[in-house]
Amino acid sequence: MTHREPRPDTYRMVFRGAVVPAEPGQSVGAALTAAGIRDWRVTRKGGRPRGLFCGIGICFDCLITVDGVPDRRACLVPAADGLRLGDDEPGEQAGEQAGEQAGEQAGEQAGEQAGEQEGGHVPSV
């Protein structure tokens, strides 16, 4: 495996104390996912992990705190140098309150639609 030097225009964001690199043009959600971070909040009921789902700003599953501002959609926020992402403790995202229900409903609807398109049955939760 070869060592790849970071590009000079690579951004450095901080997620819960860890440095996350991002390329110009990436969203915060894309950069987190590229860094191997698949979830950054949990649901209030059940503590289920949430991260990117639709990736286009429809579902609200990717809500994250950016520079102290809660409830930002990670898939829509452009990556930038020096951004502080997420809260200090996992599971304490403010986005749980605003987007959890909308995100879960959108996820369920998308899953049902996918099942209908494929002719399969999607069990309700």
Descriptive account of the structure:
- Keywords: Oxidoreductase.
- Residues 82-125 are annotated as: Disordered.
- This is (2Fe-2S)-binding protein.
- Residues 92-116 have a biased composition (Low complexity).
- This protein is α+β, with helices and mostly antiparallel strands.
- The protein has a single domain (11-117), classed as Ubiquitin-like (UB roll) (Roll), CATH 3.10.20.
- Helix content is 24%, strand content 20%.
- The protein has 2 helices and 7 strands.
- Strand 5 and strand 6 form a beta hairpin.
- It is globular.
- Residues 89-103 and 109-125 have low confidence and may be disordered.
Distance between the termini: 44 Å
> What's the CATH architecture name?
Roll
CATH topology: Ubiquitin-like (UB roll)
- Strand-residue fraction? 15-25%
**How many strand segments?**
7
The gross shape turns out to be globular
Order of the strands making up the biggest sheet:
2-1-7
CATH superfamily: 2Fe-2S iron-sulphur cluster binding domain, sarcosine oxidase, alpha subunit, N-terminal domain
Based on the structure, what is the oligomeric state of the protein chains? Answer: single chain
Secondary-structure-derived class: alpha+beta
Mean pLDDT over the residues: 78
Quickly count the helices. 2
- Main sheet: strands, sense, barrel: 3 strands, mixed
Q: What is the N-to-C order of secondary-structure elements (H for helix, E for strand)?
A: EEHEEEEEH
What radius of gyration results from the CA coordinates?
16 Å
CATH class: Alpha Beta
Helix content: 10-25%
| Count of domains | 1
Low-confidence stretches: 89-103, 109-125
